[in-house]
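Please produce the structure of this protein holding adenosine-5'-diphosphate.
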Amino acid sequence: MADIISLLPDHVANQIAAGEVIQRPASVVKELMENAIDAEAREIQLLISGAGKIMIQVIDNGMGMSSTDVRLAFERHATSKIKSANDLFSIRSKGFRGEALASIAAIAQVEVYTKRAEDEMATCLKISGSNIEGQEMSVAPKGTSIAVKNIFYNVPARRNFLKSDKVELRHMIDEFHRVALTHPEVKFTFIQNGSEIFDLPAVSFRKRIANIFGNKIEEKLIPVEEITSVAGIEGFIVKPEFAKKSRGQQFFFVNKRFIKSPFLNHAVSSAFHGLLRDQFYPGYFIYMQIDPKTIDINIHPTKTEIKFEEEQNLYAIIKSMVKHSLGMFQASPVLDFERDPSLDIPYYFQQKASSNMPSIEVDSSFNPFINSERGIPKASKSKWESEYSALEIPNDNNADEDLKLAIEQSPKVFQLLRKFIVTTTRSGLLVIDQQRAHQRVLYEKFLTSITKRNMVSQQLIFPKEVELTQQQIALFGELEANLNSMGFVVKLKDKILKITGIPSICDDKKLGKLFEDIFSTPDDYEQVASFSQSDYMAKILSKSLSIKGNLTLSVLEQQALVDDLFACKDALTSPFNRKIFINLDKEELEKKLD
Ligand code: ADP
Ligand code: MG
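Below is the modeled complex.
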């Protein structure tokens, strides 16, 4: 029998190896951006078209390459970053394997322009499927531009494997975030199909986080810091009440490299223990400097996992560091129902009730915040009402001055700009966003009714009919049970959905919009998938049915909303994680008037 073993031709070997390094457009983004950082660029531009499937281009103003080096750079194991195996233990650069460019060139069409400061002319190199198609002198500024076109054009199986544009774009944005968060000193821009989606000037870590995740995040960050012989650590954690239902704000960096570490993530999560609601994840941006000799970044081809020599110690250090910072923050909160509920009671009951009122029966120990989980009031409305009436309809004509005072000082509410409700508290005042407050109230009502299946329906005099598309019919099948338990009476016949009953708290004028919202395809599948369906439904309904800004409310309505809000399990944030109110206490006011 003839010999059967032969060596694979280079381009085939390259293609196979490329699969390790380049899985999707986002891998190209990562490798090219990291090369630009390694080349000491101060400005990096990322240009994408067709979700990276048509083109990914990275332009940097780094050190550039000579005309010989640029050619070598595309050979497998060609790297300027290490020279011997020993260097592996002192790596400070992002790359070191010399595989990325070779892998990219194996599976795409690549066009490079590069120029060093000392060279007069730039080099232009074109490679496609590992074949050099041409190299010539050219004109270009100092730095390097690498355009990668038609990724996997020669590996149809992989190209077909790519996900939707949306998903691929999401992955690219994630990679972009990771690199940009690691290097706030570098200016980054991200242009997608000709429009700019990120423009990040060179700033501090804190500002970079804000520029990426929105300025609002800045005030939600608590700094963390710890310097030990094991590691130098600094960064930020996100205040517990702003935790998210996704893991989108969890970042560890080791020696300026984004890493994933379920183990260290556990350290942070356990420090947050008891401060987060179910299914909420802490947010953190933690930067570690660790002696490269004590870590091994070599265990994963895409290098996001890492082995620490001092794993256990690092765990303990991170946990106590986060706990410490949370403690410092908890000790001086702006508004924190958990520490001392009596301090922030937004009403006068306690104070007044304890004064001398012999003829009136008032429970001096009444505290609306007691008996509530997490210190947030859960007292039912009827309890509140009875307490009010005890004060408002005195059964004793000899009510003394103290009582009159108590009535005067009972909760005052007024509406501001037809958008906010302002109410007094013992220590100052609360400014409540009426829409968010109402969303929270509705959300909790719907959620309870779904779980308890006890929503009261009202019958429609004129049943409403909605025609559904095929897709919506499928969706209806999934939502039907929940719709019923929320108080909707609906029947699907042929493609027509007939609505004969709706929850009593639902305004039939808003019905059209509501069903539009329920059946519109959710625009963030990943998010919806991570929530339970009832949560998703309760959210849609609360959003659709809530009062909006720009609506005048009567004093009674305002008061009822405030009461309902503070009877919620979570009065702090809307179902969409926005702050519901701000608390202006005496100190704050005095500070502002200083
Ligand atoms: P690695 O980064 O692991 O060294 P790569 O294949 O990513 O391997 O890059 C090979 C070499 O090409 C690098 O070591 C570097 O010398 C050079 N190089 C790549 N990209 C750039 C760039 N943007 N600017 C300057 N040199 C670069
Ligand atoms: Mg590299």
